[in-house]
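Reviewer 2 asked us to include a model.

Predict the structure of this chain.
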Amino acid sequence: MLGKGFSAASTLIVLFLIVRELPVKDFAIYTSLTAMVLIIGLISSLGIPQVLNRYLAELRTLNNNRAMYKLLIWGCLLRAVSYAIVVLVLLPFVAYLSGVFKLSDWSWLVPWYFVVGFLRVTSTFMSQAMENLLWQRDSQYSLAAEGS
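Predicted model (structure tokens):
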């Protein structure tokens, strides 16, 4: 409970600091890059988080640890690979995406932010899987690694 509260409070504080310190134009760029990552995350999810959320806890309660770990490992790998594939497909369209999100001056940053998004989506996904297994301490490690 303390970890969740700290995580929520720190995220809110960081958001307030970003809003206060960044000029409106820079905040819009940050928001657009974040939105792009969220859209890619949604497109690349392929229902993997829902499957893991549904079956991991059930396999754990049935003491079917081998199947649970197998599902966890394959789910994490598949989630990371699906995000990477979507990003690789989008790389040739960085100039177009920069225009759509009004990031023309920042198009050089978009591929780098894809990497940030990969780390963010993967760590959040792993954190949710650990939470689902009631491994809150371990889930906090992946959130701390992400930096949120």
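The chain has one domain: 23-146. DSSP finds seven helices and no strands in the chain. We have added this to the supplementary material.
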